[in-house]
Write a structure and sequence with these properties.
single chain; 808 residues; alpha+beta; 6-stranded mixed β-barrel; 6-stranded mixed barrel; 25 helices; elongated
Length: 808
C-alpha cells in the first residue's frame, strides 16, 4: 500500500505540473463518459429495470393480428378472450381491461379522469394488492350484482380526497352514477400498455353474456404465465386455439392469430431501436476518446522517456513502471468519470425535453446505484485501456538509447508508432461513421418535416369530451349537446373556426370494415378496413383538409336525410380505380351488412392518422349529425396562440353543462411534436455525438502530429539545411495527415455502407439518393484533419536547422 500511495502522490504532482494536459484529458473523458452515463440512465430505466410488479417477467400482453388484412397489434374480441381463458393452460390468471375516462362529480369542479374497466383477475395478474382496502372479487364482476364499486390510484386519493382514510366504504359519483370506494392502490402502482395515460381508477368490467359473445376487437388482455412457462410454449398453445376457432367458425375467426409478448417488451418496442442506436453512437465516442487518450499518453510518455529509462537503469521493475502509468491514467479516468456523472445529471433534463415528456417511466430516469456502477466500470476500463499503451511502449524502449538521446531522439519502436497510427485511423473511421449517421438522421428528420400531414396544425386547439351515459344515452341528446357546444365556441372572441370529430389524427383511431358498391361480396371479417371519422360541418375548414372534389357536409346532413359520406384519395384510388367515385355508394360492414348505403359526395385529401411516417389507410367521413358518438375531439382554429383560448372554451362548455368538463387540452403543434419525439431525440443526439467525435479526432490528430514532429526533429532540420522550403515542409507533414485521413475514410466508409442496412430500419426515407452524405462527411473529416495538422505542420516548418542538428 505504501508503494501505491507513493505512486498516487507522484501522479498527482505530475498532473498538477502539466495543467494544460490534465485539463484537456479530464475534459475529453468527462464528455465521453458523461454521454455514456446519460444514455445508459435512460436505457437502465426503460429497458433494463424490471417493471414494478412481482415477477414482472411473467406478465404478458395478448394481442390479435390478421396478416391477410394487414392488421397488427389489434385488441382482443370478447369471444376470443373467453376462448383463451377457457382453453389455455399456460396462465395462472388472465384478465381483460378497457381503458376510457369518467367524470368525477363532487364538491369540487367536475374532473375528467382516465379510468379502466377491468375483469376481476386484473390485479391478480399484475400481482399487486391495494395499499388499503380490497381488490375486486368475482362477485363484483357480475352485471347488476355488485359492480358499482371502484378502486382508486394513490395519486387520485391524495390529490382529490386528501388521502382521507375514511373514504373506504363511501360513495363517489362517476358519470352521474354512485360507486363505493373499496380500495386504494400503492403509490408506485401504474399500468398502461401504450402511451395512453395510465388509469387513475378502476371499475369492474361486468361484461354481459351478450357482450362476451361479440367479435368486435375492443378489449385489452393481459395474463400471468405459470412458473417456468416460456413464451414459445405460450405461443404454441395460442396457435392451437386459433386454429381450433378458425375450424369451428371460419367466417369469423379465419385469418386471425393470437400472440403473447412480455409486458415490458411491448412497452419498449417502439423506443428500443432508437435507444440502442444512441447507445452504439455514444459508445463510439468513448472508443474515440480511449484511442485519443492512448495516443496523448504515448506522446506524454515520450517527453518523459529519459526519466523512465533512468528508473529502469536504477533497478525499477517493469511492474512498477506499468503501475505508475496506470495510476496516472486511472486518476484522469476516474476524475473524468466523476465529472461525467455531474454532466449526465445535468443532461438528463435535456434528454427528457427532447422527447417532449413522452418517454416511458421518465420519472424514474436518473442517476442511481446501477448507473453509478456502470460509470465506475467504464471509467476503470477506460483508464486501463489508455493507460497500458504508454507503459507497453516504455517497456519496449532501448534503455541505453534513451539515456544517450536527448529530446530529439525517441525510444518508441516502429511497431509502436504504427500502432499509434492504427489508433488514429480507427478514430477517423469511427468519427466518419458518426458523421454519416448524423447526416442521415438529419436528412431523415428533414424529410419527415416535409411530409404533408393532410391538415394544418397552426393555431389549432384540441380538447376531448366524453358524454356520460346517464344524460346523453341517445343520439338526439348527443347531437343537440354537440351543436350547442359548437355554436357556443364560435361566439368566443379569437375563435375563427370550430369543428369536431369522433377520432383525431395522430391521437386516436376507429376502424370499421366497409363494402364498396359493386365489389365482390365478402363477409365482414374479410371486408377491407378504413379509418372512420364522424365529423361536424366546418371540420374540414377548421383542419384545413382540402376537398379535391365535391361538397362539404352541411347542417342538412342529419338524421332523417339521405346518408352521405366523404372518402379520402387512397380509398378512391384503391377501390374505384379509373372511375369517378362521386355518386357511388359504400356501407359499413360486409356485403351482408344491414347498414344503409352512403352516397359519396366528395373526395378529401389523405390525412396522416398514425404518424407522419406511417402509410395512409383508406378513410371515410360521415356526418356527425347522422352518426353521433358519445365522445369526440374539438378542433378550434384561433387567431392567436391556441392555448390562450383554452380557458375560455372550457368555461363556455361548463356553462352549457356544469358536469361536462373538457380534458386532454393540447395545441395540435404539441401533438405533432410528441409524435416526432423519437426522431428528434435520435437526430439531436447523433448530431451532438458526431460533433464530439470530430473534436476528439482533431485533438488526437493534433497530439499525434506534435509527437511525430518531435520524433522527426533531426530529419526535418536536415531537410531544411539542404534547402527544403517552409512550404515543402508543411506539405510533407500534411501529406502524412491526408494519408491517415484517407485511410480512415476508406475504412469508415466500408463500415458505414454496412451500417446503412441497419439505419434504414430506424430512419425514415433513407435511400440511394442520400449517398451524397458519404463523400460530404468524408470531405468534412479530411478538412478538419488538415486544419488540426496545420498548426504542428507550420511549427515544423519553422525548425532551425542548426538547433535540430545539435539536438542529437
Amino acid at each position: 500500500m505504501s508503494a501505491l500511495g507513493q505512486d498516487l502522490r507522484y501522479s498527482i504532482r505530475t498532473l498538477f505540473h502539466s495543467p494544460g494536459f490534465t485539463l484537456i484529458a479530464v475534459l475529453l473523458l468527462t464528455i465521453a463518459i458523461g454521454g455514456n452515463t446519460a444514455i445508459f440512465s435512460v436505457i437502465n430505466a426503460i429497458l433494463l429495470r424490471p417493471l414494478s410488479y412481482p415477477n414482472s417477467e411473467r406478465v404478458v400482453v395478448l394481442e390479435e393480428s390478421n396478416p391477410q388484412k394487414g392488421l397488427n397489434h389489434f385488441k382482443f374480441s370478447p369471444a376470443d378472450f373467453i376462448a383463451i381463458r377457457n382453453q389455455a393452460s399456460v396462465f395462472d390468471a388472465l384478465a381483460a381491461y378497457n381503458q376510457g375516462s369518467v367524470t368525477l362529480i363532487g364538491d369540487k369542479d367536475p374532473e375528467r379522469l382516465s379510468a379502466a374497466e377491468v375483469s376481476s383477475d386484473f390485479f391478480r395478474v399484475l400481482g399487486v394488492s391495494p395499499f388499503v382496502g380490497r381488490e375486486f372479487l368475482a362477485t363484483d364482476d357480475v352485471p347488476g350484482v355488485n359492480s358499482q364499486v371502484v378502486v382508486l390510484s394513490h395519486s387520485l386519493w391524495q390529490r382529490h380526497f386528501g388521502g382521507d382514510p375514511g373514504l373506504l366504504g363511501k360513495m363517489i359519483v362517476l358519470d352521474g352514477t354512485g360507486y363505493t370506494v373499496i380500495g386504494v392502490m400503492p403509490a408506485e402502482f401504474s399500468f398502461a400498455v401504450t402511451s395512453t395515460q395510465a388509469a387513475e381508477l378502476w371499475m369492474p368490467a361486468a361484461y354481459t353474456q351478450k357482450y362476451l359473445g361479440s367479435h368486435g376487437h375492443e378489449i385489452g388482455v393481459i395474463g400471468r404465465l405459470k412458473p417456468n412457462v416460456s413464451l414459445k410454449q405460450t405461443q404454441a398453445e395460442m396457435d392451437t386455439i386459433a386454429r381450433r376457432l378458425a375450424e369451428h367458425d371460419p367466417s369469423v375467426s379465419a385469418g386471425w392469430q393470437f400472440s403473447g409478448t412480455r409486458l415490458q417488451d411491448r412497452l419498449v418496442a417502439e423506443i428500443k431501436p432508437y435507444l440502442m442506436l444512441l447507445m452504439a453512437a455514444v459508445a463510439f465516442v468513448l472508443l474515440i476518446a480511449i484511442a485519443n487518450m492512448a495516443n496523448l499518453m504515448v506522446a506524454r510518455a515520450f517527453l518523459k522517456h529519459r526519466d523512465i529509462a533512468i528508473r529502469l537503469s536504477l533497478g525499477a521493475t517493469r511492474f512498477q513502471v506499468i503501475r505508475q502509468f496506470l495510476t496516472e491514467s486511472m486518476l484522469i479516468s476516474l476524475s473524468g468519470g466523476a465529472l461525467g456523472v455531474l454532466l449526465a445529471n445535468s443532461g438528463i433534463p435535456v434528454l427528457l425535453w427532447l422527447t417532449g415528456g413522452t418517454l416511458l417511466r421518465q420519472n424514474s430516469i436518473g442517476i442511481d446505484w446501477s448507473v453509478l456502477g456502470f460509470t465506475l466500470v467504464i471509467s476503470i476500463g477506460t483508464g486501463l485501456l489508455f493507460g497500458i499503451a504508454p507503459a507497453i511502449f516504455a517497456l519496449n524502449s532501448n534503455i541505453m538509447n534513451a539515456l544517450r538521446l536527448g529530446s530529439g531522439g525517441g525510444f518508441v519502436s516502429r511497431a509502436g508508432r504504427n500502432w499509434q497510427k492504427a489508433l488514429l485511423i480507427s478514430e477517423m473511421a469511427l468519427t466518419l461513421l458518426l458523421l454519416i449517421g448524423a447526416g442521415l438522421s438529419i436528412r431523415s428528420f428533414s424529410r419527415i418535416l416535409q411530409v404533408n400531414s393532410g391538415f394544418d396544425s397552426r393555431n389549432l386547439l384540441t380538447m376531448r369530451l366524453s358524454l356520460g351515459p346517464r344524460r346523453y344515452s341517445t343520439a338526439i341528446q348527443q347531437t343537440v349537446f354537440a351543436e350547442r357546444v359548437l355554436e357556443g365556441i364560435r361566439t368566443i372572441p379569437g375563435v375563427s373556426a370550430v369543428g369536431l370529430s369522433n377520432t383525431f389524427p395522430l391521437r386516436h383511431d376507429i376502424t370499421f370494415s366497409f363494402t364498396p358498391e359493386g365489389s365482390q361480396p365478402l363477409p365482414a371479417q374479410e371486408a377491407p378496413n378504413a379509418n372512420v371519422y364522424a365529423v361536424s360541418p366546418g371540420y374540414f375548414q377548421t383542419m384545413k383538409i382540402s376537398l379535391q372534389r365535391g361538397r362539404d357536409f352541411t347542417i342538412a346532413d342529419r338524421d332523417g336525410s339521405a346518408k352521405v359520406v366523404i372518402i379520402n384519395e387512397s380509398l378512391a384510388h384503391q377501390f374505384f380505380p379509373g372511375q369517378d367515385p362521386l355518386g357511388k355508394r359504400i356501407k359499413e360492414g360486409g356485403s351482408n351488412s344491414q347498414k344503409e348505403w352512403m352516397t359519396i359526395i366528395a373526395i378529401a385529401q389523405d390525412v396522416k392518422q398514425y404518424g407522419l411516417t406511417s402509410p395512409v389507410k383508406a378513410q371515410f367521413y360521415e356526418p356527425y349529425l347522422q352518426r353521433p358518438f358519445p365522445f369526440f375531439t374539438l378542433a378550434i382554429k384561433t387567431e392567436t396562440a391556441p392555448l390562450n383560448s383554452a380557458a375560455a372554451v372550457q368555461r363556455r362548455i361548463l356553462d352549457i353543462d356544469p358536469e361536462q368538463p373538457a380534458y386532454d387540452v393540447l395545441a395540435m403543434d404539441q401533438i405533432l411534436s410528441m409524435s416526432l419525439a423519437n426522431w428528434r431525440l435520435s437526430m439531436a443526439l447523433l448530431s451532438i455525438f458526431a460533433i464530439m467525435s470530430l473534436v476528439l479526432a482533431a485533438t488526437g490528430l493534433y497530439g499525434v502530429l506534435t509527437y511525430a514532429i518531435s520524433q522527426r526533429t533531426r530529419e526535418l532540420g536536415v531537410r531544411a539545411a539542404l534547402g527544403a522550403t517552409r512550404k515543402s515542409l508543411v506539405g510533407l507533414v500534411l501529406t502524412d495527415v491526408l494519408i491517415l485521413s484517407v485511410t480512415g475514410v476508406f475504412l469508415g466508409t466500408a463500415f458505414a455502407l454496412s451500417l446503412m442496412r441497419v439505419l434504414s430500419n430506424v430512419l425514415y426515407g433513407i435511400d440511394g439518393k442520400d449517398m451524397w452524405i458519404y463523400p460530404v462527411s468524408a470531405l468534412l473529416l479530411c478538412l478538419v484533419a488538415v486544419f488540426a495538422g496545420y498548426v504542428p505542420a507550420t511549427r515544423a516548418a519553422r525548425i532551425d536547422p542548426l538547433h535540430a542538428l545539435r539536438s542529437d
